[in-house]
Design goal:
Layout lengths: L1 E3 L4 E3 L1 E4 L6 E5 L6 H9 L7 H16 L4 E6 L1 H12 L2 H4 L2 E7 L6 H4 L2 H6 L3 E6 L14 E4 L16 E2 L2 E2 L7 H16 L2 H10 L1
Parallel strand pairs: 4-5, 5-6, 6-7, 7-8
Antiparallel strand pairs: 1-2, 3-4, 9-10
């Protein structure tokens, strides 16, 4: 767990051995610090944030410490870190990844999404978003995703404890809400209409 205000970095990860012969690398999402939220906003204009660089390094260290097949997972920014790490790690490590579970996580920048590593790992990504997803609809998503019914509404559905389950599975919905689609379209328009330096100014002012 590392919080560095000077580097504007908030990063946390853990490796879990569930007893099924795999090693699960799990990345934490945003915490309650200002640093964490600032780093999230930095994703709107930077090709790589500090936590993403750490995510790749952490995965490589975890891979060296165990011969087990690997599973990656994370919620929100943690899901973004999991997919990013799987895309940018070494080919040897990527070849050991069974799947990547991303829970209502923002997608990747165009530079990452168009890279060979991402294209290689995308079929192994299992993405889940709630019906009123906002965060999980941001940036590039080429992988398929499962829409999950939630007991809350709007942005409150970002909390995975509101997601509905039956037995060991999520309760699936047919599609995201109309509001979710409208908000994601508006956000994409905003990203595309402003150059990166203007987005940086906006984030710093905010």
């Amino acid at each position: 767990n590392e919080i560095d205000p000077c580097a504007e970095k908030q990063f946390s990860a853990i490796t879990v051995y569930p007893g099924d012969g795999t090693a699960c690398v799990i990345y934490r999402g945003t915490d309650g610090t200002v640093v964490g939220w600032k780093e999230d906003c930095t994703m709107t204009f930077a090709d790589r944030i500090p936590a993403q660089a750490d995510a790749v390094q952490y995965l490589e260290v975890a891979a060296r410490q165990t011969p087990c097949p690997l599973r990656l997972a994370g919620h929100s920014k943690g899901g973004n870190l999991a997919v990013y790490a799987a895309s940018l790690c070494s080919p040897a490590t990527r070849g050991r990844i069974l799947d990547v579970h991303s829970f209502d996580a923002p997608g990747q920048t165009r530079a990452v999404a168009e890279g060979e590593g991402y294209r290689s790992v995308a079929p192994r990504v299992r993405a889940y978003i709630p019906q009123s997803s906002v965060v999980g609809m941001l940036f590039s998503h080429t992988e398929d995703y499962v829409v999950v019914k939630a007991s809350s509404f709007g942005l409150f559905q970002h909390n995975p404890y509101t997601w509905q389950i039956r037995g060991a599975r999520f309760v699936a919905a047919d599609q995201v809400t109309r509001a979710s689609g409208a908000i994601s379209a508006a956000m994409r328009h905003w990203f595309e209409s402003l150059p990166p330096e203007k987005r940086r100014d906006y984030v710093d002012a905010l």
